[in-house]
Amino acid sequence: MDLQNEKCVMVIDENLPLGIIANTAAIMGITLGKQMPEVVGADVYDRTGNGHLGIIEFPVPILKGNVEVIKSIREKLYEPEF
Fold first, then answer.
1. What is the CATH number for 60?
2. pLDDT tens, 58-80?
3. Residue 65: inside a domain, yes or no?
């Protein structure tokens, strides 16, 4: 991934219950790590010395959308230029 020219976001249906939104983001994050293992960074340690395993190398904002917005984005992603 070219971090200078490409960005990664998650767009999740804002009408879902909060638990389903959190679960969706977690599953999408796991899938991202599987498809792009090079973006999973090294373990990091906080001030207290506690380790945090495989922190991603770039931010992934989670945006809200609705069914129509998500469907439109998905259709665009299947166009040849993507």
1. 3.40.1490.10
2. 899 999 999 999 999 999 999 99
3. yes
- Domain count along the chain: 1
pLDDT score for 52: 93
Range of the domain at 24: 10-77
* Cβ–Cβ under 8 Å, residues 64 and 11: yes
pLDDT given for residue 73 in this prediction: 95
Q: Model-level pTM?
A: 0.78
Residue carrying the six token digits 């190398």: 57
The SS3 of residue 40 is strand
Given CA atoms 31, 23, 41, 64 in this order, what sign does their dihedral have? positive
